[in-house]
TrEMBL record, chain B:
<dbReference type="GO" id="GO:0005524">
    <property type="term" value="F:ATP binding"/>
</dbReference>
<dbReference type="GO" id="GO:0015424">
    <property type="term" value="F:ABC-type amino acid transporter activity"/>
</dbReference>
<comment type="similarity">
    <text>Belongs to the ABC transporter superfamily.</text>
</comment>
<dbReference type="InterPro" id="IPR027417">
    <property type="entry name" value="P-loop_NTPase"/>
</dbReference>
<dbReference type="GO" id="GO:0016887">
    <property type="term" value="F:ATP hydrolysis activity"/>
</dbReference>
<feature type="domain" description="ABC transporter">
    <location>
        <begin position="4"/>
        <end position="238"/>
    </location>
</feature>
<dbReference type="InterPro" id="IPR017871">
    <property type="entry name" value="ABC_transporter-like_CS"/>
</dbReference>
<keyword id="KW-0547">Nucleotide-binding</keyword>
<dbReference type="InterPro" id="IPR003593">
    <property type="entry name" value="AAA+_ATPase"/>
</dbReference>
<keyword id="KW-0472">Membrane</keyword>
<dbReference type="InterPro" id="IPR003439">
    <property type="entry name" value="ABC_transporter-like_ATP-bd"/>
</dbReference>
<keyword id="KW-1003">Cell membrane</keyword>
<dbReference type="GO" id="GO:0005886">
    <property type="term" value="C:plasma membrane"/>
</dbReference>
<protein>
    <submittedName>
        <fullName>Amino acid ABC transporter ATP-binding protein</fullName>
    </submittedName>
</protein>
<keyword id="KW-0029">Amino-acid transport</keyword>
<dbReference type="Pfam" id="PF00005">
    <property type="entry name" value="ABC_tran"/>
</dbReference>
<dbReference type="InterPro" id="IPR030679">
    <property type="entry name" value="ABC_ATPase_HisP-typ"/>
</dbReference>
Amino acid sequence: MSTTAHVHSPAQRAREEYRRRQTVLSVLIAAASTAAVGTLLAVAVTGAPGWDRVRQSFLDPRIARDALPRVLDGLWLNVRLLVCCAIGALLLGLLIAILRTLRGPVFFPIRALAAGYTYTFRGLPLIIVLYLLTLGVPGLRLQGMPSVLVLGGLALVLTYSGYLAEVFRAGIESVHPSQLAAARSLGLTYRQTMRHVVLPQAVRRVAPPLLNDVVALQKDVGLVSLAGPIDAVRAAQIATAQSFNYTPYIVAGVLFVLLAIPLIAVTDQVTLRAARRQSGG
Amino acid sequence: MDVLRCRGLRKEFGGQVVLDSLDLTVAEHQVVALIGASGSGKSTLLRCVNLLEELHDGTIELDGEEISAPGVDPDQVRRRIGMVFQSYNLFPHLNVLDNITLAPRRVHGRSRREAEDRARELLARVGLAAKADTFPDRLSGGQQQRVAIVRALANSPRLLLLDEVTSALDPELVGEVLTMIRDLKAEGMTMVLATHEMSFARDVADQVCFLDAGRVVESGPPEQVFGGPTQPRTRQFLARIIEAGRL
Ligand SMILES: Nc1ncnc2c1ncn2[C@@H]1O[C@H](COP(=O)(O)OP(=O)(O)OP(=O)(O)O)[C@@H](O)[C@H]1O
Ligand SMILES: [Mg+2]
């Protein structure tokens, strides 16, 4: 394992020089081909007969500037909902997955309830859960009723935790029984085995699909606007109705993509790392 | 003083009898080697002793206390028994040091400092001090298996169960693990090991038990079992082993 200064042989230096040239070359080729495709697309789109009409009704900079503050306000709601619902759904999903793995007859009712939960909320369309909670529950006129926003968030958490629980459970079951045997043979209790041996491995393995579901959740949080609260898409819709111009939708779309980029980038990173670990790197 | 006493053990898997009125006694500081054909019940016996399998009859005593009695907490028993598996079973998400200190810290309530000091000392003794921060997938098979043995030793077990700990290893890596087991014997560790390495069994064991269809057919000092087996089944088995060039 000595790391003494090593002078590369001419063969190695030639190899490195070659690799460097190849890298420069491929960057140049990529840049050139991107420019060519971009130009072609731009010419084709702007040269189309209806381009001027489309530009006026979808890409009006003045209307975009006017709509931006309101759409941003709506987006802030999306972000807050996303963060709260993602955390809530991940925790609830994990809890339900763990409940489903409990063994022994004592836990039969809990297991059955947890299983029923995942079946129900994976089967029910989100819109129905949303309407039931935001329109049905307030109809009960109970004391201390939470706001429609909280109820809408709850609908998202309930639905998504059903999916996430199944992802977590797949991860838990993918941990080989020999790992459990090894942990138990060291004297760890079932709980300690779950906590220190099974769950860390399970969560690492399913991190990519979990994050994927969070990306999907990011798009679904906007559905709470069906019950009243104004999110980015709803704000854009209102602005569109006022200006008879579709530009606000484009503004909202661009903002959504910008918001998603960091999350998707993290997902890709995690997926890549998991794949590398799988291949024994 | 007997560390382990098994009486009339019976174990079935779906109607198939895998252990059949099996008796086994292991005295303190003794090394017992279990030999026998594949499927004769060696692994099952070790797993039963570690209460990883449910018994269908018989009793197991550890230091005179019946651990197979109803109401005995298996977690309490397993703390006092170390077990090492053929496939190492190190925890892939923990580095070598954390693999070794997990049980001392969580089960035996040692402080991190205390557990790590002892782990490093044990690692140094088997020449793996430099690997403390390495993850299992970066170790050779022999190194992984030595870490697995250290992990079992870190609990200071009364009894160490070794299930074919060299079977998954390349021939040139077998030696380093066997050396480690020899050293353990020299230190007085009480061990039961299932093995296909007859020369090693002959070399290290105080007593050899030949298992056939879930029964101890023949047992005694290695010279006796290997040199002058009295039972036809033992002779057959050894003849096959010699034919395969493994004795
Ligand atoms: N979990 C199980 N379910 C069903 N049958 C099992 C199970 N474990 C072991 N057996 C059966 O019990 C018998 C004994 O298996 P065991 O693993 O104890 O043999 P062994 O002596 O360790 O063999 P080897 O030398 O190949 O490791 C075999 O016939 C095996 O098929
Ligand atoms: Mg076996």
